[in-house]
Amino acid sequence: MASKKPFTRHDVLFSSGDSSCAAWLYLPTGVTSPPVVILGHGLGATRDMRLDAFAERFARAGIAAFAFTYRHFGDSGGQPRQLLSIKRQLADWDAAISWVKARGGLDSTRIAVWGSSFGGGHAITVASRHPELRAAVAQCPFTDGLASALALGPTASVKASPVVARDLMAKVRRIAPVMIPLAGPPGSLALMNAPDALPGYQALVPAGTTFRNEVAARVIPSLVTYRPGRVAKKIHFPILFCISNTDTVTPPAQTLRYARTAPRGEIKTYDAGHFDFYLGEPFEALVRDQIDFLTRQLDSALVTPSPGRAAPHRR
């Protein structure tokens, strides 16, 4: 007789603001009232771009996982499409937490948040606003919009200004947004144009996905002023920072400075690049460390992976 699958996956649609978010709920088999970790992705990314890989590993370890896609992207609701609003995305996180708390069969006293890249910055913000949470994971987190903008180069803002102006006018006129690529080749007009940005994003996109490599340009001014790293000092429960030493999108020096202000922060650094975190051996190292952290902080007798090569740990 075939053995039971270690988890089941359920399609979920939950309300947020004026629309809804699509999500997957991973439930570990044979675990009564498991703790749960909520996963959110980065700039314009959808949950099928490797959030499922992390969620599956957490579920195999006995932790329920709730991976969602922000409004305006993928198969979630929201008009216009490809609108990246920091305020709305943070509201989506709040709605996800509320849904998890209300859903039967989960332990609402043992909830963690997990975010990657831009979602890693959101995880920091959300953790600072929800003291009832038990833990947070910020993976290659966006912590300082100004630092990330400077990493694009001095001419990037000059190139972007006309596009932003046209999109703001489109907003006033209530017509279709003017788009800018999320990722592009070096020197191109895009939110990310480091050498590894475009191939890194493309490597995460599965066949038949709803992902579009563009976003409404009006987001750019708010990206520059968004500095979630500043509230790390307000998080009084454990938070794990997984930081790339070679990150081309979220400069590691600034991220480390913010991470060290978290009263109960744990820091692990990796030599893999920003987009390498989702695949291959870097993914294996990260998910091992994250399961170890979540297992400890969610206070459960969960199944942990066999010990592997540990990444450097710095406080």
TrEMBL record:
The Serine aminopeptidase S33 domain, residue ranges: 36-272
Domain of life per record: Bacteria
Signal peptide: none
Coiled coil: none
Transmembrane segments: none
Gene Ontology terms, MF aspect: hydrolase activity
UniProt KW keywords: Hydrolase
Family to which this protein belongs: Belongs to the AB hydrolase superfamily.
Protein name: Alpha/beta fold hydrolase
Organism: Rhodococcus jostii
